[in-house]
Amino acid sequence: MLITVIQKSVSNGIISDEEQIYVVWMFAWILLFLGVFGVITNAISISTFLTMGLTDGVTLSFFVLSVADLLYVVSSMSMGFFSIFWALEMGTGYRMWFVVDPFGGYTISANVSFMLYVMSMLTTLYLAIVRCLCVARPFHFKNIFTQPRSVFSLCALAVFSIGTYLPLLFQMGMDAQVDKRINSTRLLLWITSEREFIKVIIWATRDTAISIASQVIISICVVVMATILRRSSQFRKKHAAVISSIMITQRHSDNSQPIEITNKQRVKDKVLVKQIILICVVYIVCNFPKVVLNIAVALEPELTIGRRYQNIIQAEVNVMTSAQMLNSCFNVVVCYKFNAKFRRCCSFWTFT
């Protein structure tokens, strides 16, 4: 059975309909600003990684992360566009209205963005686990995560991210119907009666579980990498004199090149670890609103569209989306800061 869903008038004592208009306006411009910035930064990242060459698993993973972030930012920016039209309709008491119901367009865009962000989450998780294993057990895992294996892993993550959410997207859409608020026909949102049951299953087994698990696993990876990095730094400082004398001695021998190459590789690995740690920390902070939202939705069934707390869930979704868009815009800054090859290939940057 199909159910038509429109923006209902609700009064829950927390966010009134009048306050909802201002909330929608505020987040509409926030999403649009972050969207424009995110499209530019991720387009630069994608172009730069292609210039660098996707010859290793790490660069390939960062490239996929940039593509996932770009798609997510575009879908989230469409939420901002629909929010502007939505606020105009509510603010004018539907004296001004559009052929497509902005509430329905916003809701579908939000669900598409939910699907795409999981790919970004899983790619970040993959990067954290791979680098953590390579740092903790370099001799065991250094050559395991090759480019072909990374391609297979990332493709599997993409199929999982999209395939597990499509059943929910198939339970909603937009169709020409009579809207009693404007006494005219336009495209309105519809959902099936089974959508809520499917949503509970998907959110419980997919969004909630992955959000919390990724938060915990990435936090553990950050602690492990930071600990090993600190111990390595302390070891080098403690034995700096011995290492220096060995290198001076080796400069006068025929075997100096391997040691110099090894030292350069260690410095490069150290910088890469710092880069991934910073990306993971930003992810942990920006992903926290999503964890809170998933737990709240699981505990309170009225937190959904067309129910008592729809104004609250819409505000929470906007807060979550803003934080996630900020996370999606930040990766290019980290890459530019820590990756010398990225800086050389990034011909679009004008500052140093």
From TrEMBL:
The chain crosses the membrane at residues 26-50, 62-88, 108-130, 151-170, 209-229, 276-299. It is a multi-pass membrane protein. One of its GO terms (molecular function) is G protein-coupled peptide receptor activity. Residues 41-335 form the G-protein coupled receptors family 1 profile domain. One of its GO terms (cellular component) is plasma membrane. It is found in: Cell membrane. GO terms for biological process: neuropeptide signaling pathway. The lineage of its organism: Eukaryota, Metazoa, Spiralia, Lophotrochozoa, Mollusca. PROSITE patterns: G_PROTEIN_RECEP_F1_2. Keywords: Cell membrane, G-protein coupled receptor, Membrane, Receptor, Transducer, Transmembrane, Transmembrane helix. It comes from the Eukaryota. This is fMet-Leu-Phe receptor.
